[in-house]
Specification:
single chain
Length: about 525
């Protein structure tokens, strides 16, 4: 049985190292194709690395907390053959590695078989590991041929042959987690969490959540649309560990929470909303100082990336900031109408949606704010990859919505919701944070009126929206109570002059004051 050592792959963006956060397997465990082996933290995101191999884990070559360079072996797996992806095409081979030509999804053919392949008609195939899915019977195998060389992503110990095992954070073939439907992807992740938290029954329950039946989960009505009303399946509450901790801190019974997650799981917003409705919402208790006078926190991962990006931006681009107060009363009325519209049922609608659309509209009228400075030239982008500054437990990240200028209001609402859920779950990929053109940040969720945001490197404009709350406002010569917010924006003064910056901010304010302008 050959032993394959898997090196840490580059999961995107040319990253050079990553931290081992948590092993999902132990020595002696049997692993299947696409089973998550380890969770790593890069400078930009958390990534789960699935196994391209079926076999037995014989060695964990690095420890949790270690920072590992790309290319260094991290795990050793013993296996007879590479098992084809569980989503093999109908009628095609699904269990035997030598029943199909070598491909990026077929990892290793034992050296003996590769050196002297025997005719299929004379030598019966050796027993191999079976994939635990129902598929069509394998088609008749063609005459055996020597394995084709593939990329060296895994090395078979004691063999000169390169393996086709591709150990990356996005799975293999069409069963890749990133290619599955969001509900199935989240349900699979919850199943893994449930497996570690309780028993195999919990896994079955979580898997059932991806296709709930009428008898297993009751359906919500109203704003929840067709989402599950209860997050309890076979006695198991579907919720990630951070959500469970939050519920415990707030004295919230998860079995009573109405879930809104794609796979029927409880989200952070669900817990907070339930706590507010129950009247138990409060700040987490302030911890004691303790006996330790100083604490040392290593600068690595996302924090290291944040420090580098902020320093580069602040001391490279000359920032200039502008502020304006806005009567957002009509925006709040517009949001209320959208929430009651059947078109937006089941989609989160908030003032951030109108704010995002306003920024896109203003960019179209002031193109230079959607640029990149390169010292030799200014590149003006004729598309909008709208960055959303997101505060996550791991730190600040800025994923972006690609080609937001082409989206309808409904499509933008869905994109914002998906981006937010992905960021909170720590599943944002490097690709989702690449190639942004302009950024928005909602500091109002923290109760702040305004601020001076720092530019996202490579961009020349960032806009912040503060809290929206009742304030006295003069309307037709009379002082009235209106819903008021403050818009704050920072610009790279090398690219954006004061008059352009002012018009841009004014255009955003105009839409918040009168959302009907979006019909233009």
């Amino acid at each position: 049985m050959p032993a394959a050592e898997f090196p840490l792959p580059d999961v995107g963006e040319g990253l050079t190292e990553a931290e081992i956060v948590q092993w999902r397997v132990a020595i002696g465990d049997e692993v299947a194709v696409d089973q998550v082996l380890v969770e790593i933290e890069t400078a930009k995101s958390l990534v789960e690395l699935p196994s391209p191999f079926a076999g037995t884990v014989t060695g964990l070559l690095v420890s949790e907390g270690d920072t590992v360079e790309v290319g260094k072996p991290i795990i050793r797996v013993d296996s007879d053959v590479q098992v084809a992806s569980t989503s093999a095409q109908p009628g095609g081979p699904s269990t035997v590695a030598d029943s199909a030509p070598a491909s990026p999804d077929v990892a290793v053919t034992p050296p003996a078989a590769a050196a002297a392949p025997a005719p299929v008609a004379q030598t019966p195939p050796a027993p191999v590991q079976q994939v635990s899915v129902q598929q069509a019977p394998p088609a008749p195998a063609p005459a055996a041929a020597p394995s084709q060389p593939v990329a060296d992503h895994a090395t078979v110990v004691g063999s000169d042959e390169s393996s086709g095992a591709v150990l990356v954070g996005y799975g293999s073939a069409t069963t890749s987690p990133s290619r599955r439907k969001p509900g199935a992807r989240r349900a699979a992740a919850l199943a893994a969490e449930a497996s570690r938290a309780s028993s195999a029954d919990a896994v079955a329950a979580a898997e059932a959540a991806s296709d709930p039946g009428e008898d297993s989960i009751s359906q919500a009505v109203g704003e929840q649309g067709s989402r599950p009303r209860k997050a309890v399946v076979s006695g198991i509450v579907l919720a990630k560990p951070p959500i469970r901790k939050l519920a415990k801190d707030l004295d919230v019974d998860l079995t009573e929470v109405v879930p809104t997650g794609l796979a029927g799981e409880v989200t952070r917003d669900d817990v907070i909303r339930h706590a507010k409705q129950a009247g138990v919402f409060r700040n987490i208790e302030t911890p004691e100082w303790g006996d330790v006078r100083r604490e040392t926190i290593p600068v690595k991962g996302v924090r290291k990336a944040i420090a580098k990006a902020m320093t580069t931006s602040k001391f490279t681009a000359p920032h200039v900031s502008l502020f304006v107060d806005v009567d957002a009363t009509r925006t709040m009325e517009f949001v209320k109408r959208l929430k009651s519209s059947p078109t937006f049922a089941g989609v989160k609608v908030s003032p951030l949606l109108v704010f995002a659309k306003a920024v896109i509209w203003a960019v179209r009228r002031n193109r230079s704010v959607n640029s990149t400075w390169t010292d030799q030239e200014i590149i003006v982008h004729h598309f909008v990859n709208l960055g959303i500054a997101a505060a996550t437990p791991r730190g600040l990240i800025v994923p972006n919505i690609k080609d937001a200028q082409d989206m309808s209001l409904f499509e933008l609402a869905k994109a914002l919701e998906d981006l937010t859920l992905t960021a909170r779950d720590g599943k944002t990929t490097p690709q989702q944070m690449a190639d942004g053109t302009v950024t928005i940040t909602n500091i109002g969720v923290f109760g702040m009126d305004t601020g001076t945001p720092i530019l996202n490197p490579g961009e020349v404009a960032i806009v912040a929206m503060g809290t929206i709350k009742p304030k006295p406002w003069v309307v037709d010569g009379e002082v009235r109570s209106r819903m008021v917010t403050t818009i704050g924006a920072s610009f790279d003064h090398r690219v954006v002059d004061g008059d352009v910056a002012s018009r841009f901010v004014h255009d955003i304010a105009s839409v918040l004051e009168e959302p009907a302008l979006l019909l233009d």
